Each structure stands twice: as structure tokens, then as C-alpha cells.
Model the fold of this input.
Amino acid sequence: MLKGKSAIVTGSTSGIGLGIANVLASHGANIVINGFGDAAAIESERTAIEKKYGVKCVYSSADMSKPEQIREMVSLAETSFGTADILVNNAGIQFTARTESFPEEKWDAIIAINLSSAFHGMKAVLPGMQKRGFGRIINIASVHGLIGSKEKLPYVAAKHGIVGMTKVVALENATSNITCNAICPGWVLTPLVQKQIDDRAAKEGIPVEVAAKELLSEKQPSQRFATPEQIGAAVAFLCSDAGSSITGISLPIDGGWTAQ
Done:
């Protein structure tokens, strides 16, 4: 349903972003993947997307804390594919500490990558989308864009900011065929989350399965992790014709977390 379209997915060399990139490619979209990691592993993922789905896939090493590199990433999409039709702002980092002891450099980094990068990406893609009369912007927020948690001040602030920016961009483009929506995942089983589970199991001397259940039971009533592919399926729907009248929303995919 996205054949002939092109998508930029930030932070997509692993985890949720890679899942989104694969789902969009499976629907025919050409893809710009972005992120850090082992060069050989990234190239393997890039070629796998091309071979599996018969689309074009290019890699951008843009640092999401640097606006000029974000603009270069958008230019790469336009040069490679002719357009940048879909932007998925997924890149993010995390650090936890109480407010009074939170390192200022960590605050700056989280705000830059989790919030400001989305602004710079949207600013770069919108003129082309407006000229062509089509665009889909999906901001990957979090349940923490809707609620708070202790020791996550900049992350919660950034994700609340993402939800607010989503509404503004949606309103500014409401009369066009450009939509802007946010997805708010709860616990998603990614390599980073698996590491948290493994560390918890090791620290408490309990089986990994028990550690996973403990993590889920604290917040997520479904007692099940979402998957990157499920997040990707929601992104694909919002990018489709069926989602063309949906704009400005924040969609929780959280197993009931925010229903409590």
C-alpha cells in the first residue's frame, strides 16, 4: 500500500526502529535507515531489507543531536528516491536518576535526541510534503508522553513535548494531505529491554522469565510485551489511505498501562 513512497526512520538500526523499517518496506516503501552500531551489522540489515522486500534502502549515519546532519539525511532521501514522503521520528536515548542529582549533560543529550531532533526532522521534510500535497509524520513518543515516572525527568519532559509538537504540526497541516500522529508504546521487547530483564535477573538471582514478569507486572496489565513489528503495523496503518483522516492523535500501544 506504500509502493512508490519513501520513508525515513530514525534510530532504526535495531529495536523498534528496525521493526518499523521492515514493516514499511514490506508494504513497498523505499527506506532510509539511520542510527549507530557496527558497520557490518548495519550493512547486513540494509541489504536484507532490499533483498527481502524488493525495495531500495540506504543508510544515513546522521547524529540526531546535530541539526545539519538531520537536514543532510532528509536530502539523502530526496536524492536517492526523489521524495521524502514519510518521516518516523523514533531515535531516543535514556538515563535515569533523581532530579536533584541528574547530570546536566545527560539532560541536554536526552532533550536534543528525544525532542529537538523531531523538530529539526519535521522542519526539513514539511516543505517538500507541502509542495507535493502528501506527507505522513509519525512521532514515536512513549507512555511517558502521557504519564510520569520517577527518575526519568528529561525523558518524560521530551516525550510530553513530542505529544504537544504532534498536535501543533497536525493543526498547521490539517487542510492538506499531511498528517502527524504520535505512537506511545509501553514495554516493547527490544534488545535494550531484554538487557534490563537480564540485569534484573542477575541482580536478584531469579530466572529471566520471572524477571520479565516482574517488570511487566509493575506497569503493563496485559502481562505481555508489545513487539517492534506491532509498532510498525500501527505506523503503516497511519501512513495508509485508511489513516488519512487521523491526525494529531497519541496512540498508546501499552497493554493497558495508561488505562489505569
